[in-house]
Structures are given as C-alpha cells and as structure tokens.
Design goal:
The complex is a heterodimer of chains A (312) and B (743). Chain A has a domain at 16-115. The N and C termini of chain A lie close together (9 Å). Chain A contains no helices and 25 strands. Chain A is 0% helix and 54% strand. Among the domains of chain B are: 333-394, no CATH class; 399-623, no CATH class. Chain B contains 19 helices and 35 strands. In chain B, helix 16 (625-641) packs antiparallel against helix 17 (645-655). Classes of the chains: A mainly beta (312), B alpha+beta (743). At the A-B interface, strand 1, strand 2, strand 3, strand 22 and strand 23 of A face helix 1, strand 29, strand 30, strand 31 and helix 3 of B. Strand 1 of chain A pairs antiparallel with strand 31 (381-388) of chain B. Chain B: Belongs to the WD repeat WDR24 family. Chain B: Pfam families: WD40. Chain B: Residues 454-493 are annotated as: Disordered. Chain B: Residues 472-487 have a biased composition (Basic and acidic residues).
C-alpha cells in the first residue's frame, strides 16, 4: 500500500519490546514520549527541522504495562506523567546535572508516585497550565483522581465510581472557553469516557468535582475523549470514539456546557481507538483498528468531511 | 495449537466461590476424580464437594479435642493413587497423614515430626503410592516411606530454607527443590541425600515456586520474589528460555494443561488477581482473574485448561472459568497517535501481528484468519512511524508570518502595507487582502469627516456588475477584472462568502493597489482635503491609467456638477452599481470585524489578532473582550509553542487585554542584605540566618518597607526622611559606626 502525497511516512525503531500504547508530543513539539507494554517509557528528541528522532532516555519504574503518558506544560519544567497497569501514576522530572568535567547530563527522576487506585490506571491528562500543575487520571476501578501540586505537595481529590466498570479516557477543557462561562470566573472542567459507554463532564465546584453532564450515545466502551481547543472558536466541542466503531462530536450549541447534541461523524469499519484535535480545533485526527489515520474537517455545509486518509 | 480433550464439563462450568469462614487458606488440593477439593490453612482444614454451581462442605478435618499446631497447615496434597489419603505440611514442622476412610471424626493417621521448622511443601510421588516428599524451612527435603512410617532419606540443600519441591514428570527418581537463596537443585532419589546432580541459580532472591511442564520434556518454570517467572530448559545444564515480569513477587505457579506456553501464577503480596501468562509475552498477562479480595495462595487446574480453583487469604475458594477472565491485553490501546502541532506531523504506532519481523510493510494488514486470537496474542509488536500532514493540521498559522509581521512602531497604514506584502510574498492571498482592505479602511476613515471623499467608497463596484457592464470604454480592463475575480473565487471562495460585499470590493482594491497595469478608478476628487501621503501616492499611480477620463467619458452629462452626482450617474446608468448611499465608515469596521471573526473561526487566529493589533491604536473594533482574549490566548500559545517568545511578548504587551500575563511568570527574590540568604514568605522581613530583621532603619531601628537609602561607604541606612533629618544636624553615621557619611 502506498502513502499519499500528504503523508510522507517515516518509520522509526521505537526500541520497545512490546506493543506501544501511547505516544505524546510535548507543548513545543520537540520531545516525543512513548510508552509500551514492556513497562518502560521512552523519550525522544524531535528535530524540528527534519523531524528526525533521537533517543534520549528510557524511564523504568512501572511494574506493569504503561498505558498512557502526558507532558506537563513547559512552564513547569520538563515533566512527564505516566500511568500503568500496576495501578500507579508516576511523575517524571528531567533535571540537569553538571558533572565535574563540565559535561551536562540529563537525569530523569520519579518525583512522585501516586498509588491511590485499586486497579489499572488507564488515562492521564494534564490540566491547562492556567490551573497550575494539575492532572486527572482515570482507572479501571471506576474512579478518577485529580492531583494538583499545591504548597509543595500533591493534593488529591478523588471521584469514586465515576464510570461503572472503569474509566478509559480523560480530557481537560481549555481554560478559555468563550461560549461557556460568561462570567469572569473560569471554571475547571474535564470530560471522561468509560466502560459504561458514557461520556461524562465534570466541573469543579467548592473544591470538589461534580458531574455536570452525562452524554449517552455510544453503544460500547468509550476509548478516547478529546475536548477541542478553544483557539478562536465560539462553540465547545468534544470528540469521543468508541469500540462501537463510531466517532461522535458533541456540540454544545447552547453554550451552557450541559446540553450537548451528538453528531455522529461516521460509523467506521473497525474500532476507533484515538481521536485528537489539531491546535485550533477545526481538524480532527481519527485512528482506528484498520491502522489508518484520517483527518476530518467541518465544512461550511455543516458536515464533517474526511479531508485526508492515510490509506489513500 | 494443541487440541486435546479439554474437560467436557467446561460448557456447564461456571465461576463460583465458597466462603471458608474459619480463616485464610494456604493451599488446596484436588481429589483424583476432581470431584472434591481439600482446603487447608492455619485455622481451616475442610473438604468441599464441587457441585455444578456451588461448593458444598463435606468434611471439616479440624475436629477433635486438642487442635494443636499439627492442624495448622502450610500445604496440603491429595494422594493421586489413594483417594482416602491426604498429607499436610504443618507450620510446626510436622508432616501429617490423614486417612479419610477412618470411621472416627478425627481422621489424623500419622504425624512425622522429623522437620525442625515449618514445612512449606508436601508432594506425593506420581506413581509410587508410598513415597512422600516434604520441603521445609530447615533447609532439608525429606523422603518418607509410608509403609514403614519413617523418613527414609534427607536431602540437605545449600540453603536455609526449601520453598518448593516437585517430582520430574515421567521420571520416577528425580525431583527438584527450590530454595530461598535463589537456587534450583535437582536430586536423584536413588543416589541418596548426598548431593544434587544439578544446581543452578534461577533468581536473585528467594524462589517460592517451581513447576515442571506436564507435556514438554525438560521444561521447568520457577517463580521468585524478584517479580519474575522464568522458564528453563533443564538438561545437563539449565538454559533460560523466557522470563515473565510480574507485578509483584510470585507466590505459586502452575502450567495450564494442554497448553504449551501458558502458565498460571499468584502473587505473594499486593496483587490479588490470579494471572495466566503466555511465556512469549512477558509483560502483560494473557488472562487475569480478579475475584479474590486478598492475595491468592494456591491454584490448581481442574484437569482442564479452562477451569481452575484458587484459594486466598480472603478466606474464599473460587472456581474460575476461562470465559469469565479479563483479558488485560484486549483492553489495552493497541495504537498510539500523537499530533505535533509545531511540525504539523502525526506520529502513529500500530500493532502488528506478524511473527516474521523481516521487512514489515508500511501499513500492515495483518491476517486475522491464519492466526487465532490466542496465537496472535504473543505476536503483538508495534510499528512506529511518523508522517507529515502539515498543511492540513497547521492550517491558519504561519511561522514565517509570525516572525516577519510588524505590529507596532509605525503608522497603521504602513504596518498594513508591510504585512500585506509579507503575506503576499508567502502566497497567502486572502490574508494579504485582509491587510489591504484594512489599509483602505484606515485611509478612508481618516478622511471620513470630509463629505465628498466618501464617494471613494461608493465607486468600488462589485465585480459581477462590472463584467455585466457594456464593454464600452476598456474591454481589456474588464476582462482583467473578471479573470482576476475568477482566480480569487477559486482560491478564496470561503472568505468571499463571509466577506460579502466587502470581499467583492477586495478584488477591486487588489487591482488598485497590486497590479501595475491600467485599472479602474471611478472617482477623483481633486478638491479633496489633504489625505495621508501614502494613500495619495496610490491614487496618483492609478489615476495615470485612465479612470478619470473613463468616468467622464461614460457620464457625458453634468460632469461639472457635484461629484456625488457623477458617482450616482455612473452607477445607475452605466455600471449598475448597487451602492446608492455612501458606505459609512462604521460599516467598514463591522466588515473588518466580520472578516477577522471569519478568519478566527477558520482557525487563523494569527490574522485576526495581528490585524486587530495594528488597528487597535486608531480604532476600536466591535469585538467582545472575551472573544478577543480567547484569540490572544490562542495566538500567544501558538507563538510560545513555536518558541517565538519575543513575538508573544509583543502581543501580550500591546493587546491590552492580557496585561496580567506579563506579570505572571515574573518572580523576584528578596534576600537578606547581610548574609544573602533568600527571605521566606512566612518570616516576612526577618532573616532566619542572621536572626534579625533585615533592612532596619539606622535612626528608628524599625524595618524599612518602602524606600530605603543607605551610605555607600559604611552600608548603613534607613528611611529617607529619617536620614535626611539626621544628616541635617550630623555628619557621622546614625548607627554609630564612626563613618563620616555626610562629608
């Protein structure tokens, strides 16, 4: 099979010994982290000019397959969170150490390990940097934990039984949401998807996170949720994909953050594993069980159209 | 795949449990016909019948007057050959025989008190009904002859403690023992207890369990505290074939019957689940059974690869059925997708199920039909590649623009001009047009107060009307315009929709300002007030073409009348202009706002923010503050993502709505003036190290919180007012150091 002109494909050896479950680019697009079933996280440097990858570090510390990784905003230093089957979330921090001979070496340390879940932790997602160092993680035990770094220690807030049978994905809303929050007060929100086929929206209220909306529409496990970035857009959108082979765009037409109308992108031929927005939130990348990536854009006609497909 | 008789009862078997109530269990054993299970622990010793859908307690062996430590079982085994014979290893070192055929309630038959310490394991010989082995904490393995009821042989291991013993399958004379120092030893019963015929170190740390593969010859699995299950081929030497990395220390392991590569395991600590692994997939269990609330202590397969029993510290016995297992690998995300905003690149990792790694195709289509799911399981590998989709993902933001745009420091008109040229040089026609029309707007706006200048705007026609016009004066001009129009229609259809009437004007303006050839111009107001030089330059250039003449030509009547009349004449009689009234400047600002909103909606916050920034000093566009904030935030983030910090700082400074951002990441440290130690927030103006308030006034001895002045010579100082007062009457330092500060 050949690749289209839009997709210049570069294959590279990840060095992992087993399946790769997640890959994430950092904010500046210069670092790539991958995590694998082989219990390790690997970090690469991405050359911004030619896109080549240089291996930087292998992070060992998990005792089970690592499901997801997430980069913190660079204003908090080079920091990475990873979650694993071993029920842990590990926060890795890169520090520079100057050797006696003047060489600088980069070290990765596990600065904090969160072990508050009773089952595999499936998803981690950093909050917008405006909220400080804050992270949400969802677990197979059905709970979601919000960890925030305040006063030199990690504060833990837990939502028990957020999703029956387990939570698969979490995604934070951007700090700036033009159509919501007409008041000056900014509200912290995130969306989660789980094995109960639901997408749920959570909002911070009096130091707790409460369920704000429950979006029904999928008929099988929700595998990924992606809240669209706000850049210049006026409507809140959430994309979710599921094992029922569909991708749903949830539009908040009212702008109230509660009433979302589902819009089915398409029913695909295979399970859809990932959805991801581009920076401005007008292009959605979808990757599914057929190992293809397709890009979708909403046109003036109000319909989502596939603008590119890696299989073509 | 192996296919053998796999427990006919599998279809009907179901997961079920039994609560032992009396306490945690340490071990379990099945009767020969698999109809009963014996469960043993410190305080529990029961025989349960395995019914179709439940366990039924048949015998409680913990009966009798003196329940001594002999009843406290560490391990239990049911004789394969004599269904009435059970042996247990007790925590006090006793190996106890139990005879179920006894008529009395107490079934205890015999106690071997040969071991000094806890017995960890007892095992019957597979073919010899009278041979029993036991491994103990005292570091020995003893072989009992049940006929003479005595320990016939003692095997002294090289360690303090033997954790597991097992006879080799299909070999009547040899057994293995594993011990706490990490070694595995193979012994020959016939050679007596002198020395093992093979010793090798299997784990770093204690080995807790071993199991010979029932079907594969010479294949031994060991599990240790080092969180590994290792599979060995043992001949004259031991070679490591596989190593499985488990979540916690391995307690018990047991090969899955009729399967070549599957092995069940329990954890000693932490993990309550029972896992079945494929030895070729060392990091993720093939199946997990998560029924227990506490760690499982024993597992045994019920003569079928699909059913097994386990017991646990949570005081329960479970029968597990494979169809109820969770498959961690199936839950796992088999793909990774990362979008690189900066490079407009997508990285994707996909799982392939191809066993031959030689030259995998780029987009592998794995053949689902040839390999069963079970077989696929171990072949999973990920391919990782990246591909560019730059144009598609990055649409709307141009690094070059961000770097080259000038947003401040010149008059808005000049800035528009500069930026339009930059956009044009980057082949961004629609953006260039926005800049151009912004400039046009600025020009008109500045001259707005003068009434007849407004006709400039009137005379901007919509292209379609132009092309419909009779080709009287200059055909080539009109063709040129309509061509141009078509070009733009194809390239900027979308923007045209939104820009509406203005957009149509845009093309005209592009002609006006961009093309060198002769162009239309409809209105000339020679008597107009002084316009900004720049605007005039353009007009002059353009006027050289012909328009004034042309206009005059086509409106033969009343040329000398008011300019307005001319314009109206033009429109109605000849060029069919739609505009009747002069477009007020406000309309323009609204249109520009619309254009910016359109661009922002299309994801191009760059244009929106930059145009707005240029206009900001002279005109207030009707854009809501929070919308503006969102645009600015987005643009600033884009700039920061691309490490264009200087440009981001410009936006932050001049956007006027996000001023607080420039203060956000600024921090300053206050240090003690004496020792240089940074002051903590809590202590305020008190230095921890000097144990003194910092910055004290030499006159009043209070801490100076506001302006402070000090002598460059002696370093003493204080409140400015106090010092001024002091030095009005003194020359020496107020502290008394003797320094003459005021000379």
């Amino acid at each position: 099979m050949s690749s289209s002109a839009a997709f210049a494909v570069v294959t590279f050896d990840s060095g992992h010994q087993d399946m790769i479950h997640d890959a994430q680019m950092d904010f500046l697009g210069t670092k790539l982290a991958t995590c694998s079933c082989d219990k390790t996280v690997r970090v690469y440097d991405v050359n911004i000019i030619d896109g080549s990858h240089t291996f930087l570090a292998q992070l060992k510390g998990h005792e089970g397959p690592v499901w997801q990784v997430g980069w913190a905003h660079p204003r908090y230093g080079t920091m990475l969170a990873s979650c694993s089957f071993d029920r842990k979330v590990i926060f890795w921090k890169q520090t520079e150490e100057v050797k006696s001979d003047g060489r600088e070496i980069l070290k990765w340390n596990a600065t904090f390990v969160y072990e508050g879940h009773d089952s595999s932790v499936n998803s981690v997602c950093w909050a917008p940097p405006e909220w400080g160092l804050m992270l949400a993680c969802g677990s197979s035990d059905g709970g979601i934990t919000i960890l925030s770094f305040e006063n030199e220690r990690w504060e833990i807030r837990k939502i028990a039984a957020a999703h029956m049978l387990g939570c698969n994905a979490v995604s934070w809303a951007p700090a700036q949401m033009p159509s919501l929050d007409r008041l000056d007060k900014q509200v912290k929100r995130f969306a989660s998807g789980g094995c109960d086929n639901m997408v749920k929206i959570w909002r911070e209220e009096n130091d707790h996170f409460v369920e704000e909306a429950m979006l029904e529409g999928h008929r099988d496990w929700v595998r990924d949720v992606a809240w669209s970035p706000s850049a210049g857009l006026t409507k809140v959108k959430i994309a979710s994909c599921s094992q029922d082979r569909s991708v749903i765009i949830w539009n908040n037409k009212e702008g109230d953050g509660i009433s979302f109308t589902p819009e089915i992108l398409q029913r695909f031929d295979d399970v859809i594993w990932h959805v991801s927005w581009n920076f401005v939130g007008d292009v959605l990348a979808v990757s599914g069980g057929d190992n293809q990536v397709s890009l979708w854009k909403k046109h003036e006609s109000d319909k989502w159209e596939c603008i590119s497909d890696s299989s073509k | 795949m192996m296919s053998r008789g796999e427990g006919g009862s599998y279809a009907t078997a179901r997961s079920m449990s039994f609560n032992l109530q009396d306490g945690p269990a340490n071990a379990l054993a099945l009767s020969k016909d698999n109809s009963h299970v014996v469960v043993a622990g410190r305080n529990v010793f029961k025989i349960l019948a395995i019914e179709e859908d439940c366990f039924v307690e048949k015998v409680n062996l913990r009966v009798g007057k003196n329940l001594n430590l002999n009843y406290s079982c560490n391990d239990v085994v049911w004789s394969i050959l004599d269904e009435n014979l059970i042996a247990t290893g007790a925590t006090n070192g006793a190996v106890v025989l139990w005879n179920l055929s006894k008529i009395t309630r107490a079934k205890q038959e015999h106690v071997f008190a040969d071991h000094q310490r806890t017995v960890h394991k007892v095992v019957f010989h597979p073919t010899d009904p009278f041979m029993l082995l036991s491994g103990s904490q005292d570091g020995t393995v003893k072989c009992f002859d049940l006929r003479v009821r005595e320990a016939k042989l003692t095997f002294k291991s090289n360690s303090e403690s033997v954790r597991d013993v097992q006879f080799l399958p299909k070999n009547n004379f040899s057994f293995t023992s594993v011990s706490e120092n990490g070694s595995v030893q193979l012994w020959d019963v016939r050679k007596g207890g002198e020395r093992p015929f093979l010793t090798f170190t299997a784990h770093s740390g204690p080995v807790f369990s071993c199991d010979w593969h029932p079907d594969l010859p010479n294949t031994l699995a060991t599990g240790g505290r080092d969180r590994a299950i290792k599979v060995w081929t043992v001949t004259n030497v031991a070679t490591l074939d596989h190593s499985i990395a488990t979540v916690a220390s391995v307690g018990r392991i047991k090969w899955r019957p009729s399967r070549k590569n599957h092995i069940g395991s329990t954890s000693l600590v932490v993990d309550a689940s029972v896992c079945v692994w494929d030895v070729r997939r060392p990091f993720v269990p093939f199946a997990a059974f998560e029924k227990h609330k506490d760690v499982a202590t024993g597992i045994i397969w019920k003569n079928s690869p699909h059913i097994f029993l386990s017991t646990s510290k949570d005081c329960t016995v479970w029968q597990h059925v494979f169809k109820d297992a969770t498959r961690p690998a199936s839950k796992a995300m088999p793909q990774a997708l990362a979008v690189n905003v900066r490079r407009g690149e997508i990285a994707q990792a996909v799982t392939t199920y191809q066993s031959d790694s030689a030259a995998p195709p780029r987009f592998p289509i794995f053949n689902r039909k040839t390999a069963s799911l079970d077989e696929q399981f171990h072949m999973a590998r990920s391919l990782f590649f990246t591909f560019e989709a730059g144009r598609l993902l990055r649409d709307g933001f141009r690094v070059e623009c961000a770097e080259r745009y000038t947003l401040i420091g010149k008059s808005p008109q000049e800035l528009c001009d500069i930026n339009a040229k930059i956009a044009l040089s980057l082949n961004m026609k629609s953006v260039a047009l926005v800049w151009e029309i912004t400039k046009l707007f600025l020009n008109t706006r500045i001259t707005e107060p003068v009434p007849h200048i407004e006709t400039t705007k009137v005379t901007v026609p919509t292209p379609n009307h132009v092309s419909q016009a009779p080709p009287k004066p200059k055909e080539d001009n009109e063709d040129h315009i309509s061509d141009d129009d078509q070009n733009h229609s194809s390239s900027e259809l979308e923007s045209q929709d939104v820009l509406g009437e203005i957009a149509s004007g845009l093309h005209m303006t592009q002609n006006l300002f961009m093309s060198a050839g002769p162009t239309y111009e409809f209105q000339i107001n020679q008597e107009g007030p002084v316009l900004p030089a720049e605007a005039f330059q353009h007009r002059h250039e353009i006027r050289e073409g012909s328009p004034p003449l042309h206009l005059e030509d086509c409106s033969p009547r009343d040329v000398d009348e008011a300019i307005e009349t001319v314009a109206v004449e033009n429109r109605t009689s000849y060029l069919k202009f739609k505009f009747v009234d002069p477009v007020p400047a406000f309309e323009f600002s609204e249109s520009i706002t619309k254009a910016l909103q359109f661009h922002a909606k299309e994801g191009d916050v760059q244009t929106a923010v930059c145009v707005w920034l240029v206009l900001a000093p002279v005109v207030k566009l009707p854009i809501e503050r929070r919308v503006l904030e969102a645009w600015c935030y987005a643009y600033i983030e884009l700039l920061q993502r691309n490490r264009l910090y200087a440009q981001a700082a410009v936006v932050i400074k001049h956007c006027g709505v996000l001023g607080h951002l420039s203060q956000e990441s600024t921090s300053y440290l206050i240090c003690c003036g004496k020792c240089g130690k940074p002051l903590t927030q809590k202590a305020g103006n008190f230095c921890d190290k000097c144990r003194k308030a910092v910055a004290r006034c030499g006159v009043c001895h209070m801490t100076v919180t506001g302006l402070m002045s000090w002598c460059q010579g002696c370093g003493h100082g204080g409140h400015i007012e106090h010092l001024r007062k002091w030095f009005s009457g003194h020359k020496e330092c107020p502290v008394g150091c003797g320094h003459v500060c005021h000379s």
